[in-house]
Amino acid sequence: MKRALAQLVLVCCVLLTAAAKDAQPMADDPELEKRVTNLSQELRCLVCQNETLADSRADLADDLRRTIREQMRAGKATKRSLPI
Q1: Cβ contact 36:65 at 8 Å
Q2: The overall pTM is greater than 0.70
Q3: Spatial contact of 68 and 40, defined as CB atoms under 8 Å apart
Q4: Which of 6, 32, 33, 44 is least enclosed, having the fewest CB within 10 Å?
Q5: Which one, of 79, 2, 37, 38, lies nearest residue 71 by Cα?
Q6: How does 37-61 read in b/e, with b if 16+ C-beta sit within 10 Å?
Q7: Nearest Cα to 27, choosing from 84, 81, 57, 68?
Q8: What pLDDT, on the 0 to 100 scale, is given for residue 52?
Q9: What is the Cα–Cα distance from 32 to 27, expressed in whole angstroms?
Q10: CA 65, CA 42: separation in Å to the nearest integer?
Q11: CA distances from 20 to 9, 16, 62 (A)
């Protein structure tokens, strides 16, 4: 039973890795993108907990980086002010 569960987890990890997209900068403003990247390097991905949000290629990490970018554009500059 434990072996089957371990195999299932391994298969899920492989599928998530294969389906993950490359993390690409999305801001037109290089300074904003630098701020997003700096903050993303301090946060952990909820899917791949051993990776930072900046390094993760999971779809959720992409969504969270997009949210950070939008919040920073809206003037929310600190980690405390982000709704994450």
Answers
A1: yes
A2: no
A3: yes
A4: 6
A5: 79
A6: bebbeebebebbeeeebbebbbeeb
A7: 68
A8: 93
A9: 7
A10: 12
A11: 16, 6, 9
What is the token pair recorded at 76? 């929310």
β-bridge mates for residue 52, sequence order: 44
Strand partners, 44: 52
Query: Is residue 78 very low, low, confident or very high in pLDDT (cuts 50, 70, 90)?
Result: low
83/64 Cα distance (integer angstroms): 10
